[in-house]
Prior knowledge:
Structural class: mainly alpha
Strand content: under 5%
Distance between the termini: 33 Å
Oligomer: single chain
Radius of gyration: 19 Å
Helix content: 40-55%
Amino acid sequence: xxxxDDERETVYKIFEQYEIYKQRQRFKVHLFxxxxxxxxxxxxxxxxxxxxxPIHFAVHDEVQDATQAELSLYMLIANSxxxxxxxxxxxxxxxxxxxxxxxLRSLFHYKHEIDSNIIxxxxxxxxxxxxxxxxxxx
Length: 138
């Protein structure tokens, strides 16, 4: 089911009220949500680059459930050429969310424009389902 324009407008108004409420309450009860945390980390890492223990390689499974904001954090703390993202576009947990690996690749394209040493990786599709073969489903 896709939203009508009226439904979309109603949801957006609720979202705006939610953001205003969070902002008003933030310093009283430290109210924030997950995207507030991600945005804070992103802002801090772009202002003050990561200087912790080097992260040489990172793997993120179930990437279809992550936002681009979450995934972009990897690019700020690890070597972008040593990242492995895996997932199944048919297993998105949020209804109506359409993850596409091309969206993930766009993060690499953006980074490549800034640093030509960053390689835009190919997307490799697995065509055999190793998880649900007949030995499991029968």
